[in-house]
TrEMBL record:
The name this protein goes by in its record: DMT family transporter
Lineage: Bacteria, Bacillati, Bacillota, Bacilli, Bacillales
Membrane spanning stretches: 34-55, 67-89, 95-115, 127-144
InterPro entries for this protein: YdcZ
Heme as UniProt keyword: no
This protein's UniProt keywords: Membrane, Transmembrane, Transmembrane helix
Keyword Transmembrane among record annotations: yes
Domain of life: Bacteria
């Protein structure tokens, strides 16, 4: 099962620079990173709504109202992420965009795990994680060298 999950993660990772590049072309077509992001989110939202209805439907729950405010900010962060990639791809390229985003992701992920932020189970930084993060950061530096 772990192999399937790893493959799923790799495919998801491969989808991101593809999405970034497609959205950058959409920006060229529509003339605005905000409009391109909006179109991208509308298309994605329609696809997700269709999948939700075929899978389980939507059953509203009173727990939704009682949830912490920050639990609803994922879409805002996603919108920021998509706009950022649309702006960055034409200026610094796909490899640099992904490299810097990967660096930000790994730093944030280690901090979230280490401190147990946002309800994530605590997984302290150890020597192996420190070495791994360092190697990723050095890899990003090497990707930037022409």
């Amino acid at each position: 099962m772990i192999i399937v999950l790893i493959l799923f993660a790799l495919i998801a990772g491969m989808a991101l620079p593809t999405q970034f590049s497609i959205n950058a072309q959409l920006r060229s077509l529509v003339g605005s990173p905000i409009l391109a992001s909006t179109i991208s989110f509308i298309v994605g939202s329609i696809a997700l709504l269709i999948m939700t209805f075929f899978n389980q439907g939507i059953k509203f729950n009173k727990n939704w109202v009682e949830a912490p405010w920050w639990i609803w900010t994922g879409g805002l962060l996603g919108a920021f992420y998509v706009v950022a990639t649309i702006i960055l791809i034409p200026r610094i390229g796909a490899a640099s965009t992904v490299a810097f985003i990967l660096t930000g992701q790994i730093i944030a992920s280690v901090l979230i795990d280490h401190f147990g932020l946002l309800g994530v189970h605590i997984q302290p930084v150890n020597l192996y994680k420190f070495i791994g993060v360092s190697l990723i950061i050095f890899g990003v530096i090497f990707v930037q060298k022409h």
